[in-house]
Design a protein that fits this description.
With 308 residues, the chain is an alpha/beta fold. The chain has two domains: 181 residues, FAD/NAD(P)-binding domain (3-Layer(bba) Sandwich); 113 residues, FAD/NAD(P)-binding domain, CATH 3.50.50.60. Bound molecules: NADP nicotinamide-adenine-dinucleotide phosphate. The site of NADP nicotinamide-adenine-dinucleotide phosphate has 16 residues, from helix 4.
């Protein structure tokens, strides 16, 4: 099947691009991916997306965006793009099961996934005290005890941010030396609401019927184990952009994020656009993703006008 425009991914970036392209009468095909609706479907309340003064749940927000895109003629298809051939136009996208579709233009909005450690208790407590986003969930931990896992800039930043809400914040890092930049380390060290458990390996998220109660860790120096009491555990061990299916056909940075021409959504290949977390290691918010999805749709529309 041939399409003028195909959008890969249905987070806020992909669905915003779909709304704009559909309203421009380009009837985009949207492939919904392994996590339809994207990362927001794993959060509960979203309180910082403008337009919802009472807040809205992540799944409901994404469902609304999907319905809005469909209302204007976007077609949303279940499936995952496993590989692509971007060497010539029309581009070819292969779906799981090897069926192929072709497209004059492609928007990539496959997002990023927060890395997980893989310890017992972690997966089942996501949304019950384990979080991967301080900006999203910090507010729910007012006067509570929080553990932040990680030793990079994100961990320093999230720990600092969380001290606005929490009674105390403890950074747990698996080595003695932090990976974070000196300035971020210094800021965190100056904050007396932050405690440190360095050279400590996280072993297990402890929980009861009400949610998370603590983190079991091993002190690497003496091998002793202890349980750090916590109501919330924030994983800040990095994100992984979902770009493996591209197999190096687009320019990415050293972390795998798709490189775009600054200020635009244009990638290293004309006719291929990127938006949302797959090209943004910094802001990673639903609203910034939606904004970049809008840009991608407008860039895609101009491209299709110039290359009928
Ligand atoms: P990162 O720099 O890759 O740091 C990840 C941290 O998590 C490391 O300390 C790592 O430990 C730890 N870690 C990784 N896997 C782990 C595991 N399985 N168990 C326990 N700990 C684990 O990631 P990031 O902090 O998200 O930063 C990503 C990029 O964004 C960086 O380039 C960063 O500079 C940038 N950033 C910048 C800012 C800013 O400037 N404001 C803010 C946020 C992020 P090891 O150190 O032992 O490997």
């Amino acid at each position: 099947m041939h399409h003028q425009a195909v959008i890969i991914g249905t987070g806020p970036a992909g669905l915003t691009a779909a709304i704009y392209l559909a309203r421009a009468n380009l009837a985009p095909l949207v492939i919904d991916g392994t996590q339809p609706g994207g990362q927001l479907t794993t959060t509960t309340e979203v309180e910082n997306y403008p337009g919802f003064p009472q807040g809205i749940t992540g799944p409901e927000l994404m469902d609304n965006m999907r319905k809005q895109a469909e209302r204007f003629g976007a077609r949303i298809q279940s499936g995952t793009v496993t590989r692509v051939d971007l060497s010539k136009r029309p581009f070819t996208l292969y779906l799981e099961g090897e069926s192929a579709i072709t497209a004059d233009a492609v928007i990539i909005s496959t997002g990023a996934s927060a890395k997980k450690i893989g310890i017992p208790g972690e997966a089942e407590n996501i949304g019950r005290g384990v979080s991967t986003c301080a900006t999203c969930d910090g507010f729910f931990f007012r006067n509570k005890k929080i553990v932040v896992i990680g030793g990079g800039d994100t961990a320093m930043e999230e720990a600092q941010f969380l001290t606005r809400f929490a009674s105390d914040v403890r950074i747990v890092h698996r080595r003695k030396e932090l990976r974070a930049s000196q300035i971020m380390q210094d800021r965190a060290r100056k904050n007396d609401k932050i405690d440190w458990s360095l050279d400590c390996t996280p072993l297990e998220v402890m929980s009861n019927e009400n949610g998370v109660t603590g983190l079991r860790v091993r002190n690497n120096d003496d091998g002793e184990e202890e349980i750090l009491a916590a109501d919330g555990i924030f994983l800040a061990i990095g994100h992984q952009p979902n770009t493996r299916f591209l197999d190096g056909q687009l320019k990415t940075d050293e972390l795998g994020y798709i490189e775009v021409v600054p200020g635009s959504s244009r990638t290293s290949l004309p006719g291929v656009f990127a938006c949302g977390d797959v090209m943004d290691p910094i802001y990673r918010q639903a609203i910034t993703s939606a904004g970049s999805g809008c840009k991608a749709a407008l860039d895609c529309e101009s491209f299709l006008l110039e290359h009928p």
